[in-house]
Amino acid sequence: MEIFTLLGFGEKGWGVLILTGMALTLCVTLASLAIGAVIGAIIAAAKLSNRWWARALGTAYTTIFRGVPELLIIYLIYFGGSSAVTAIGQAMGIQGFLGMPSFLAGALAVGLISAAYQAEVYRGAYRAIPKGEIEAASSIGMPPMRCLRRIILPQILRFAIPGLNNVWQLSLKDSALISVTGLAELMRTTQVAAGSTRQYFMFYIVGGLLYLVLTSFSERVFNSAERRSNKSMPRGMGQV
Amino acid sequence: MSATPRLSVRNIRKSFGAHEVLRGISLDAHDGDVISVLGASGSGKSTFLRCINLLETADDGDIVVNGEEITMKTTSHGRSAASRKQLDRIRTNLGMVFQSFNLWSHMTILENIIEGPVHVQKRPRAECVAEAEALLEKVGIADRKDYYPAHLSGGQKQRAAIARSLAMKPKVILFDEPTSALDPELVGEVLRVMRDLAAEKMTMLVVTHEMGFARNVSNRVIFMREGQIDCDGTPQDMFGGKGSPYFQQFIRHMETENDAA
Ligand SMILES: Nc1ncnc2c1ncn2[C@@H]1O[C@H](COP(=O)(O)OP(=O)(O)O)[C@@H](O)[C@H]1O
Ligand SMILES: [Mg+2]
Question: Does any CB of chain B come closer than 8 Å to the CB of residue A138?
């Protein structure tokens, strides 16, 4: 059967390329999650700050990155970044167009978007911590940084898991947009395979199924993390 | 009494905006004193306790714990402790038990109790665990040490919170309505623990609506009204008719409320 040849791992098969693309999708999304976690935590802290200008900056960030189309952000980072790289290259005497590495540009773009959503998740999680628990820590003389590490962060992580699951799924799908930069992730590879074999229907369905594999697998990971963190919650009867 | 008071509060004032909640409160608590603080809701009792360990910063006045005064500074942001280090050290000597328990919900009961000794006082973990188990035994919840707070009854949670406070070996414990959030049938088990502490000469400042505790356990009763100490004295005097007319009215009101309940 032709289908099996095309999807297989033989010389004429696209199997290896597609699986590599899938791995790349996973990697670029993981990288964007990490970038988004760092920036998102800073934005969340800004939005929770009692300095008005920090709050204003945080709000501006989340408004912009949630309100502007993802594709525009990706173009902005990729082409904007590339022209910056080119300018730097020219200053150092290198002529011609220098592209920004597409993996980096993609991870950064999706990461910046993810940060806006993660910031909301962390802010909500912080708000869910009873204020009295932080007062209890202060009242025994726990210094603020230790309180952050021992009392606040573990609970933020616990409350953030469901929200992070959503953000992750969103980023996984956003990562398909990086295909416009030529990065051979799952979307791009599927596109190329479909175009060059003219088997559009088959390859897009396979691509779609592989995205579903990724999302349902990560759903499981998040669910088990949530279950584990829930052992201290009221409903789960988790007497260790 | 000539000995240094365990806790000395001098002329505390506190306003929230234009609302003056504490209008000059002073008090000395000596070793083994059990002082009940009574007063209508909104009279400033919680704010008073919270100003003692600086969960709220008083606008004026001094706090002296075991002879050491908490040094304050005033900047453009307002008044605050001059040294966070000194404040944290003094806070380890000042336990606090909250109406809403405030146990750390991501930690088991045992972890809650050893948290301060291990991570604030930096004492050896094994020693802290042994002490924590003894404390849990003492408050009667040794069998709950590996449970999370969410799986305990209110009375058990408050007893755990008292044990957590005791684990720091404080010189004074502040109680802010420790039984007000409890179902009536669970009040007794918490009061029993507090009565035991009183018998062991722990210095305690207790905001409460439990007239039985104020009358029978404390050696001094303070009645707060509109941010001031309206009257104070021994329970015998206060409940024997020597309090102010406002206090008389207050206890009559409390009694009818208890009868209604
Ligand atoms: N953080 C706050 N901000 C503004 N007002 C407050 C705050 N805390 C307490 N108050 C006000 O101070 C008064 C005294 O409150 P509180 O000390 O809680 O009284 P009590 O414990 O005796 O019921 C009340 O009128 C209350 O509304
Ligand atoms: Mg109160």
Answer: yes
B143 touches chain A (CB under 8 A): no
Q: Which of chain A's residues have a Cβ under 8 Å away from the Cβ of B164?
A: 136, 140
CB contact under 8 A, A238 and B148: yes
CATH of the domain at A215: 1.10.3720.10
| Residue A164: domain span | 8-229
Judge whether A218 lies within some domain: yes
Q: What is the mean pLDDT of chain B?
A: 94
Is the distance from CB of B169 to CB of B39 less than 8 angstroms? no
Determine the Cα angle at B40 with ends B36 and B42, to 5°: 110
* Number of independent structural domains in chain A: 1
Residues of A in contact with B106 (CB under 8 A): 154-155, 158, 232
Residues of A in contact with B104 (CB under 8 A): 133, 136-137, 151
**Does residue A240 sit within a domain?**
no
- Give the DSSP H or E segment for B37: strand B34-39
pLDDT, tens digit, for every residue of B59-98?
999 999 999 999 999 988 889 999 999 999 999 999 999 9
Is there a domain that residue A234 lies in? no
pLDDT tens-place string over residues A9-35: 777 778 888 999 999 999 999 999 999
Angle between helices A15-48 and A102-128 (to 10 degrees): 40
How confident is the model over B208-251, as pLDDT tens digits?
Answer: 999 999 999 999 999 999 999 999 999 999 999 888 999 999 99
Q: Is residue A37 part of a domain?
A: yes
Task: Tell me which residue has tokens 């002879």.
Answer: B67
Please indicate whether, in this complex, the C-beta atoms of A234 and B151 are within 8 angstroms of each other: yes
ipTM value greater than 0.85: yes
Please tell me if residue A145 touches chain B, with a CB cutoff of 8 Å.
Answer: no
